[in-house]
Amino acid sequence: MRMNTKLNEYIEKLASTHQLSLDAYEYVITHRDEEAAEWLARKARDISQSIYGKSIYVRGLIEFTNICKNDCFYCGIRKDASCSRYRLDQEDILECCAEGYDLGFRTFVLQGGEDAYFNDARLCDIVSKIHTLYPDCAITLSVGERNKESYQRLFDAGASRYLLRHETADRNHYHKLHPSSMSFSHRMRCIQDLRDIGYDVGIGMMVQSPYQTAHHLAEDLKFVETFHPEMCGIGPYITAKDTPFHDQPSGSVELTLYLISILRLIYPPMLIPATTALGTLDPVGREKGVLAGANVVMPNLSPVGVRRKYQLYDNKICVGDESAQCRHCLENRMDRIGYTVVTDRGDIKLWD
Ligand code: SF4
C-alpha cells in the first residue's frame, strides 16, 4: 500500500484486529482515497470468499403492506405520504412463497410498514403456515418495532430472522430523521430484544442521509463492531418525493461501497446485501457491492401489480419485472462477475 501512512496504519490494524477506535473510524472515512478503497475491496472480497466461496445468497422479498403508522422523514411510504396503499392477504403471500420456492428461494423476507392490521394473531398465522409448508426455508420478518412478547410469538411461530435497521447509531441524528413520537432508545431496545430471543438480527443504515456526518457513520461502524449483527444492510440514502427531505441530495455509491468493505473487515462472516438502493443509483451498483465484499442479493417476489406502490424512495428499480425475471437477471449479473447465486437458506457461517 502506498497511501497516507496514518490511513494505511488504521486499515491494516482493522484487517488484523477487526476493530478501531471511534476517532480512527472517522479518520478512515474522511481521509479515504481511491487506493485505500481498492485495497479494502480486495481484502473484503478475499475474506468473503474464504468464508462463502463465490456463492451469493438470495432472499425472496415479499413487500406485503405499504401501510405504516409512522412518519419517518426519509420514507416514501410514511403515514403522511400520498402514495396509494395496499395490503396483501394471506393467500397472496402464500402464492408469492410458492412461486419463490419453485424458483429456488429458501429464504422469504416478509417486509412491510408498521401496519396494525397485521397483529400477532394474523402475522403468526401467516408465519406458521409458511413454516409448515416450507420447513426447509428460513422466514425473515421486517415489520418494524413491536414489543418483546410479540417478537417472541413470531419466533415461536417459525420466524428465525428479523431485519430492523437502526438507521443511525447516534441519538441526536436519529431525532433529525424521525418525528418526536419515535424513540431511539426504543429502537435499540427492540434490536436487543430480538437478539435476546434468539433471532438472527439484521441492522442497517443509510449512507449520507440528511444531517449525517462522518462521526455518525463511525458510530454506526462501532455499533456493528460491538453488536456483531448477523446481517447489516447498507445502502445510499435516496431522496423520496412527498417527504420533508424531498429536496435533499441522495447519498454516494462510492462511499457506500467503501463502507461495505470496512464492514466485511469488522465482522467477516456478517451477511451483507448488495442493496436495491445501490442498483437504483448505479446500473451495476449491485455487482460493485459484491466486488466490495457483499454476499447477498434480495430479488423481489411481490406481485408486480403492487410493486410500484412500495416506493421507499424515488425511481426504485425492478418494479416492473416478474419474480422469475428478477431472479434470472440477478443470476446473470452475478455470473458476469464470476459469482453464483445458490439455492440455499443462506445462514451466517460462524467464525472465530
Ligand atoms: S421507514 Fe419504516 S417505519 Fe418509517 S415510515 Fe417508512 S415504513 Fe414506516
The kinds of small molecule bound in this structure are: iron/sulfur cluster
CATH topology: TIM Barrel
Give the SSE order as H and E letters.
Answer: HHHEEHEHEHEHHEHEHHHEHHE
Derived from helix and strand composition plus strand pairing, the structural class reads: alpha/beta
Mind sketching the topology for me?
Blueprint: H1 5-17, H2 22-30, H3 34-52, E1 55-58, E2 60-65, H4 90-102, E3 107-112, H5 120-133, E4 138-142, H6 148-157, E5 161-163, H7 171-177, H8 184-197, E6 200-207, H9 214-227, E7 231-236, H10 253-266, H11 276-281, H12 285-291, E8 296-297, H13 304-307, H14 323-336, E9 340-342
Parallel strand pairs: 1-8, 1-9, 2-3, 3-4, 4-5, 5-6, 6-7
Helix pairs in contact: 2-9, 3-10, 5-6, 6-8
The site of iron/sulfur cluster has 9 residues, from loops.
Would you kindly provide a written description of the structure presented here, covering whatever features stand out?
This protein has one domain: Aldolase class I (TIM Barrel, Alpha-Beta Barrel). 45% of the residues lie in helices and 12% in strands. The strands form two sheets. A six-stranded parallel beta sheet has the order 2-3-4-5-6-7. Strand 6, helix 9 and strand 7 form a beta-alpha-beta unit. It starts with a helix and ends in a 10-residue tail after the last strand. Bound molecules: iron/sulfur cluster.
